[in-house]
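Comment thread on ticket #2218

A.B. wrote:
> Attaching the input chain for the structure job we discussed in standup.
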Amino acid sequence: MPADGPEIILNVNDDEATRYALSRMLRQAGFEMWEASSGSEALLLARRGPGLVVLDVELPGIDGFEVCRRLKADPRTAAIPVLQTSATFVSAQHKVQGLESGADGYLAQPVDATELIATVRALLRAQQAGAGLQEAGREWQRTFDAVAESVAILRADGTILRVNRALLILARCTADALANQPVGKVFRDRLGIDDPIVDRLVLRDRKRQTADLRAGDAWYRIVADPMLDPMGRLDRIVLVMTDVTGLRALAEAERRRADELLHDNRRKDEFLAMLAHELRNPLNAIATANALQDQDGARDEHNVRLRSTVTRQVRQLARLIDDLLDVSRLTRGRVQLQMEAIDLKTVLHEVVQMARPSLDARRQPLVVEVPDEPVTVHGDALRLGQAFANLVSNASKFSEATRPIVLTCAIEPHVGRAADAVVRVVDEGMGIEPSRLDAIFEPFIQADQSLARSLGGLGIGLTIARRMLELHNGSLTAHSAGLGTGTEFRATLPMIPTAASATASGPGDRHRAHEHGEALDVLVVEDDEDAADLMEALFASVGHRTRVARDGVAGLAAMFAQPPDVAFIDIGLPRMDGYELARTIRRSEQARGVFLVALTGYGRPEDRARALDAGFDVHLVKPLEISRVSDLLSARVHRAELSRREVP
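C.D. wrote:
> Ran it. Output below, let me know if you need it in another format.
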């Protein structure tokens, strides 16, 4: 039957006159009519798919009741509405019999045309609505079965109402076998998941429940979502099972990879610390020997220049070691700052002094401009000095010889908040492509230019400078118009109120050398023969009485035999390491007041903290800064003189 044609009605009646009358009424109402005079003929025509069957009860051979039963029993005709009519069987009992045989309606002859047409149309509407519901149901089931995850719809008590195809395949059974079964039992019997969490997932709760469960070698994520009725009561539960075996395997692989990376990172840090220690020991001997040469060596211009070169290169190597360790600490957030109020001008003055030898060697003028008033910031003077020294070193490295470098410091006021200190380092060097201005602050990014590579560098100085300033609530940016135009680095730091500047100090103010004082008794405990002999010679050259012990036990014996004023103790000593030696000294009666200086190639914050916890007063990292050692010794002399003056 065409979809857009009139509805076809099959009129079954053995009485020709009655059949004609019924067909005429229905044709006038717009229906197309097929006719049959017997039950057998009706069954054959019905298979061609009429929209409705008007079926008389009294038929020859097969009565209307039996015809109706057969129509409803055949899947090909079961959905066709059947309207039974009868002129004889008109009692209520007969109507019931007709309806029970499967009829959708029952009319007594003679039939009123209006009632007949209205009844037929009502049955057709009901049939169409039912067909729509059936199609919607089939569409829903197709969608339900197309879901890749295994899905079950449960009643509020946790028994299974409906499942999709994926769950049937997983459970290896039919829908009838799962219907009305408790979900916990199905999980145990069919899926091998015997976990009480399954029953807890379907408790009367209005919240989503989630759990990961194992079934053999597979893992499933179970999600139970409640469905509430209009009164807000739990009515159904939608349970979804997702195979997460692959995801868990991936997560486990990622976890193992993360553990391996963490282990590798720890080994890298340990290696870097050991490497720094091993490099600092010979650097310390070189620096000390060079310092002795400065005091006792030839004073002609050639020898002075050679010693200046050695000093400069030792400092460069020491700075590279510090930078390599610092970039590792910075990436892991393990840098510890010693914050205090400082005058930034003092920091910049020391940066200039450190940079001067390298700049002079390349004949690069350094123009310095700073304000007259204090520039007080809250920070770690050593770390800020390191950051600005890296900026000046970078400017020198990427500028031709003889080209000037400008270092300025200015105060930038703001409305409603404290002013900023702004430090600029400007060069006339090779410049930077604008697209790379942010990339240069990434670790190990190095300009691939012959000029840069000829001067070395690890490509981490700018990374350290920016991160150090950020740790001080500051910032560092780069500006360049392009290659060949030079570069400007702009650093900002928040200032603190001027009233605090009275307490601000420079990094060297706490231990200024005391120029006039008597000699100290100095004990050096160092197993490296060259380093020990050179330190002994260095301290003796400036008038201090110096003794040397080659291991921890010998150092302890020397300490108890004659407690010194100052003891420089290496950490990595044979027989008794420096930490144990310091702890033993602090527990003793005769030597607990000795000023102890830890001397080591390990410069991590945890190494410094461990040294101070062991009882050291100061932690010095090799190679020694001779000025720092002189400050310490001079401070001890000054303290000794004050102590004697206080004695009545």
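A.B. wrote:
> Thanks. Noting for the ticket: Confidence is low (pLDDT under 50) at residues 448-456, 499-517, 640-648.
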